[in-house]
Every structure is written in structure tokens, then in C-alpha cells.
Amino acid sequence: MALETIQIQDKLTETFGENVSHYSQEKDIFSFEVAADQITAIILFLKNDPELRFHFLTDLCGVHYPDNEVNRQFAVVYHLHNWYENKRIRIKAFIDGENPQIRTISNIFLSSNWMERETFDFYGIDFIGHPQLKRILNMDEMISFPMRKEFPMEDSGRTDKDDRFFGRTTDNY
Amino acid sequence: MSELLLPPEHRYAKRIKEQLNEDGSELSILNLGPTHPATHGIFQNILLMDGERILEAEPTIGYIHRAFEKIAENRPFYQITPLTDRMNYCSSPINNMGWWMTLEKLLDIEVPKRAQYLRVIVMELARITDHIICNSILGVDTGAYTGFLYVFQFREKVYEIYEEICGARLTTNMGRIGGFERDWSPEAFRKLDVFLQDFPAAWKEFENLFERNRIFIDRTVNVGAITAEQAMAYGFTGPNLRAAGVDYDVRVAQPYSSYEDFDFIIPVGKSGDTYDRFCVRNAEVWESLSIIRQALEKMPEGNDFHADVPDYYLPPKEDVYTSMESLIYHFKIVMGEVPVPVAEIYHPVEGGNGELGFYLVTDGSRTPYRLHFRRPCFIYYQAYPEMIKGSLLSDAIVILSSLNVIAGELDA
């Protein structure tokens, strides 16, 4: 029997209750939010449960929401895939904007090692327990986190190019 | 001596000091890259070696990082294809089409069957060129230059077909939302026919040169083997995973662009070593050729090459100069003023190296709020230090080349 989204939802509510919320079907992917401090337990459960079997980590990345309230300013987004049933899910964990921290899942999925490093590199999200959390694509000397929305894409001192004429303002991210 | 190569606090430098072999020789450090010709791209590996054997490796990447994800957040949707071109530049049409299909999923646009088939043809051509490069360069790295010279001219022929379709060769920027920018010319179909006629013989010859070649087999069998479990744990997808015996292919698991209409098999290997990766890619080329033939055969009548979506698809140029409505649409699309829903989309396609995914978050504005590329190379390259541990230096080169790590995709 194919794995139904309602089954996933039931199992998660049964086991984690309030810690998993905002279930929704977004186009072809079933997605939900989880409490950031429960992330390892939930991912481990999704991976090891004999019915759910989300055994493959497709993708992991960060998103910055500077307009959210301060405890939801960063999101870490996980895409898991169950190849047996060909089912994908998306998990979002919102974390604090001042001091973004979340536990690593690199002990559950080896492949998340570099993806977490990339997320750290771009957003400065601290993955607690990561074996080698250092920059990966940018140079080590860099002090800012370039994918954060407040980081300007271009040199703000430029005068030859006025973005206002193209419907953008300099602080328009 | 090692102090000159590495800062003395580096863990390898420390280990060299501590570990002295019984015969009095000491471990050494070798910098493979960043611009070594044998690595086919700019990445560095600091190797800790005991003679010819590699004990440990530390990869450094990011030498051609161009911040595509940041740039994408500042570009209207139609200006993002040129960025995708430059990821896996050996098969840019797959990246282009993957991006358009992501947008079409976002906007619920149904692409006409004929345009879907044309897309399948161009994506399979791209897969063929990708595998031509990977396998023939693998031959070069094992010391067989001939095969490379035999098949590389066919990459040129494919590029000529691209040229007929979109005007560009390497970084194609092909297609538009809903289809192609123009219909394929008769010349494109003619060139495609010639390619389908001439290429199989050359590819067969190429296979014959390698598949039972004693030297090639000695260099590749049991070199860089990876088990299926390990490969999945490291996030392998595409030919490299299939070589380890897992038949996961996005074209079958989640068919897009009418791949469900075609009959093809997914070649799988067994041992996940360099030789299997080579054979899987060889076999995939045959499957791609078969898909192209089927697509040409089943091609629906008519000349639909794009969906009827005036909000997103540029009107014909002659109308822009003569009709007000077209001019308005043209202006709006070029300025990026197109209606876009607030949504989150993930769309995967089977790229040359594995599952190429686009995770797109929109907020209703003219640019993506967040666009993340799931780049197969980036994910599976982290297994490289593990795969070369204990092997010879010359094997490390062969393994790297058989993994088909493309620097552009690795660093984005």
C-alpha cells in the first residue's frame, strides 16, 4: 500500500504531538514545521520507522526571514525522500535570528555534512555537534554571512548604477 | 620541508612529525590542485601520503564560487537561466529545462506535448555530451587518448544542433517559460538525423576500445568502489549511484516532460567501482539515443513549441512594434512584472550527474525570495576522501574523473 500523507501526519502527531505542526500539501510535496530542538529525534524517527522509511536526504538549506519575529528569523529546510514508496517530504525548522543554532544531523545522514557547512557559510547557522563546521565555499577570512538578506549584493558605494529606476531600492532584498 | 607547504599547526604537519615509518622514511604531503591539469577543474586536495599511497585527503572547494543563489535573489525569473547554464556546463540544456519546469510547476502551466518531446530530445542530447566528456576523459586519464579523439567530434555535432535551436553552444540559455523561444528549424532536425546516423558507430567503436581492454580493466576494476549503502548515505544520485546497483532515476521515479511516454531501461552496475561507472554511462548513452529516436517517431503533428501564456511568454517581435497589447506584455515581461504566486516549489530533474533540484521560495515579487540548487556534484564529492583512502595517487585521478565532478556545479 502506498504511503499516504495522512499516515505520515498521524504517526508524527502520535509520537511528537505539538512539536510538529503546520502540515500542508504544497504542490507535490507534503511539508510541515518542526520544533528546532526536536529536529534530530524527528529526522531519526522518519528515517528508522519501518513504515515511513525516509532514508534519503535530498537537500538541506537555509532561508532567512528578517521580517519574522525574532525567534523565527531563520529556517533550515530539509527535503527527505522515501525511495521505496517514492514519497518526498519537506521539513522546516525555524530558529532564532539573534543566535541561530540547531543540532546537526550529520550523524544521521553523512551527506548532510557539507550541506550544513554550506548553510553555515551562507547564513551563520551554528549546527551543534557538527564534526567540522567551517566555511566551505567562501574564504575562511570572511566575517559576514553573504546569503543573509541584509548583506548587499553589490558594493553600496556604486554611483554609476541607480537601481531605483528599475523598481528596486538599495535596501530592497 | 613540510613547513613550507602547510602551516605548521595543520594536523598533517603534526602527524608527519609524530609518525615515522620503520624504515626511516617519513610521510609526505602532496597538493593535488587547485590547478592541476589532471583534476579537470579547480579544486584542491591536500593529500597525506606514505610513498605512493594516500593515507588521508582534505578537499578544499569554492575556487569558482560565483554566488549564484545570491544573484538569483536579485534577478527576475527569466534572467536565472544563464546562471543555471554555468553550473554543469557539460549539459547546460538539462539545467535550463529544469529551471523552466520549476517555474511551470509554480505557475501551473501545461506545456504542449510537442514542446515536451523537443525538450526530451535536447535533454537527452545533453546527457550524451555529458557522458561523452566523462568517459572519454576517463580514457585519457588512464592513458588512452585515442577514444577521446574518436568521440569528441560528436560533442561538436551536438553543439551545432544546440546552435540551430538557440544560437549558443556551451552556455545555452535555451527555452522560455512554457516552451522554446522559437520553433526548431528544419536544419536542426536534419543535423539531428545525421547525428543519430553517425554517432552510434563511433560510440560502439569507443566502447570496443575500452570495455575489454586489459590495461583499462586493470586500471579501473575495484578502483574507487563504493557500496550501495555508503553511496546512499553520502547522497549519491545519478550514474554514480546506479553503478553501485541502485536503480534510482528521477526520469522514472518522478517523470517530468513526458518521460513516461518512452520505453527505456535504467542501466545499473554492481560493484560501484570506476569500471562500473564507466559502463553505466556507456549504457545510458544507448538509452538516450533510443529515447531521442522514440521522441522523433512519436512527435505530435503541428508546430506547437510553447504554451499559450501571454503573461509569461514574450509576444512575437513583429507584433511588439505594431500592436499595443503585445507592446505592453513585452514591456512587463522584460521588466519582470509578471504575476507570481506565493509558494514553495521543489522540482528535480535527472541531470548528467544525478538529481538536480531547484528549491524555489517566492513571495510574490519579481525575484525569487530564495532559490537553492541541489547540485549532485557538491553532495557526492564529499565521499571522495573516503573513496581514495588507501589507493595510489594515479588511482585518485581516475576516481575523480569517473565521478565526473564538474567544478561549476560543485561551487555554484
TrEMBL record, chain B:
<dbReference type="GO" id="GO:0050136">
    <property type="term" value="F:NADH dehydrogenase (quinone) (non-electrogenic) activity"/>
</dbReference>
<keyword id="KW-0520">NAD</keyword>
<comment type="subunit">
    <text>NDH-1 is composed of 14 different subunits. Subunits NuoB, C, D, E, F, and G constitute the peripheral sector of the complex.</text>
</comment>
<feature type="domain" description="NADH-quinone oxidoreductase subunit D">
    <location>
        <begin position="141"/>
        <end position="411"/>
    </location>
</feature>
<dbReference type="InterPro" id="IPR014029">
    <property type="entry name" value="NADH_UbQ_OxRdtase_49kDa_CS"/>
</dbReference>
<dbReference type="Pfam" id="PF00346">
    <property type="entry name" value="Complex1_49kDa"/>
</dbReference>
<keyword id="KW-1003">Cell membrane</keyword>
<comment type="function">
    <text>NDH-1 shuttles electrons from NADH, via FMN and iron-sulfur (Fe-S) centers, to quinones in the respiratory chain. The immediate electron acceptor for the enzyme in this species is believed to be ubiquinone. Couples the redox reaction to proton translocation (for every two electrons transferred, four hydrogen ions are translocated across the cytoplasmic membrane), and thus conserves the redox energy in a proton gradient.</text>
</comment>
<dbReference type="GO" id="GO:0005886">
    <property type="term" value="C:plasma membrane"/>
</dbReference>
<dbReference type="InterPro" id="IPR029014">
    <property type="entry name" value="NiFe-Hase_large"/>
</dbReference>
<comment type="function">
    <text>NDH-1 shuttles electrons from NADH, via FMN and iron-sulfur (Fe-S) centers, to quinones in the respiratory chain. The immediate electron acceptor for the enzyme in this species is believed to be a menaquinone. Couples the redox reaction to proton translocation (for every two electrons transferred, four hydrogen ions are translocated across the cytoplasmic membrane), and thus conserves the redox energy in a proton gradient.</text>
</comment>
<dbReference type="InterPro" id="IPR001135">
    <property type="entry name" value="NADH_Q_OxRdtase_suD"/>
</dbReference>
<dbReference type="InterPro" id="IPR022885">
    <property type="entry name" value="NDH1_su_D/H"/>
</dbReference>
<protein>
    <recommendedName>
        <fullName>NADH-quinone oxidoreductase subunit D</fullName>
        <ecNumber>7.1.1.-</ecNumber>
    </recommendedName>
</protein>
<keyword id="KW-0813">Transport</keyword>
<keyword id="KW-0560">Oxidoreductase</keyword>
<comment type="similarity">
    <text>Belongs to the complex I 49 kDa subunit family.</text>
</comment>
<keyword id="KW-0472">Membrane</keyword>
<dbReference type="GO" id="GO:0051287">
    <property type="term" value="F:NAD binding"/>
</dbReference>
<dbReference type="GO" id="GO:0048038">
    <property type="term" value="F:quinone binding"/>
</dbReference>
<keyword id="KW-0874">Quinone</keyword>
<keyword id="KW-1278">Translocase</keyword>
